[in-house]
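As a warm-up, study this chain.
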Amino acid sequence: MRKVLAILLVLTSMPAMAAEPDWSANRIMPWCRALVSNREMQDYFNQGLCGGMINGIVYVLSQSAVTGVLPITSRLCVPGEATMGQIQKIVIQYIDQRPQRFHEDFRLLAIEALMAAWSCKR
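Now compare it with the structure written out below.
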């Protein structure tokens, strides 16, 4: 009985091994494709996750263009008439054209895509 208690004590005192979230384009892109194609994927949460990440990146990088918080190379100037759907399609098209990079972080690839499309003029 003491051995069982000792093992339980050791196991419960060990720090939890939290898995790192997978932010790779491999994982995120199916949700993004479903979001812009209006396919019925029944995974609205993850489709929203994709749209929210892109929207958040656009907001932060666009605000840096206004406030100058980020370096000049990180500023984004999206035309006022661009819709969120158009912005999402640009990100998805950019990443889909680079399948050899699908293992990379989706968020960084999205930033690259947006900067390639709408980097502020110096």
